[in-house]
Amino acid sequence: MAETDLIRSFIAIPLSAPIKASVAAIQDRLKPSLPDIRWAKPESLHLTLHFFGDIDEENLEKAAAVMVSIESLFSPFLMTLSGVGAFPSPKRSRVLWLGIKCNKMRALHSALTGGLIECGFNCDKRPFNPHITLGRIRGRAQDLRHILSPERNTVAGEMTVDSLTLFESRLLPTGAEHRPRQTITFTAD
């Protein structure tokens, strides 16, 4: 198979327009203090549940089938976006994130990854840590405890999670462009 036949893709929860605007406001507030960050574009913000990397069309279809298989297991639910932090830690910051508070998120992630594993996909063995990536540090890790500590309780808002989307991600000189390939809507009563 030619490398051009591979499609960079991931499954994610799209964010609502009001949440994207709220996250952009948090980014704008942090930008003057953090000049060495490559900030995520507000229009591209999402909550990744599984990143595939480059996969072929056949595996994209398998991933879409897994999504369809779980859509009737969940009804829409609320999640709260709050708390700014960093991976691997605020002392050695590489990635800035906005946290997710939601009791049902782990069950959704578990159902999705369980189905993906059954179809032969490799899934991350680390514990799931739901978050929205705000930006990535350029260069070496930085100690941002003094900047992030006051942001621990920052709240971006609350939104209803009612769908999952399989995205194709194209890397362009202007940054990644995410195109929806398939979306499922939760249908449980």
Textual characterization of the structure:
This protein has 189 residues and is an alpha+beta fold. The chain has helices spanning 17-30, 57-70, 105-118, 145-148; strands at 7-14, 37-39, 46-55, 77-87, 95-101, 131-137, 155-161, 163-172, 175-185. The strands form two sheets. Strands 2-6-5-4-7 form a five-stranded antiparallel sheet, with helices on one face. Strands 3-1-8-9 form a four-stranded antiparallel sheet, covered by helices on one side. β8 and β9 (175-185) form a beta hairpin. α2 crosses α3. The termini are far apart.
* Class by SSE composition: alpha+beta
Measure the end-to-end span. Answer: 43 Å
Tally the beta strands.
9
How many strands, what sense, and barrel or not for the largest sheet?
5 strands, antiparallel
Helix content: 10-25%
Order of helices and strands: EHEEHEEHEHEEE
**What strand order characterises the main sheet?**
2-6-5-4-7
Oligomer category: single chain
**Which word captures the global form?**
globular
Please state the CA-atom Rg, rounded to the nearest Å: 17 Å
Average pLDDT = 93
Query: Strand portion, in percent?
Result: 35-45%
- Unreliable stretches (pLDDT < 50, length at least 5) are none
How many helices in DSSP terms?
A: 4
Quick rundown:
This protein has 189 residues and is α+β, with helices and mostly antiparallel strands.
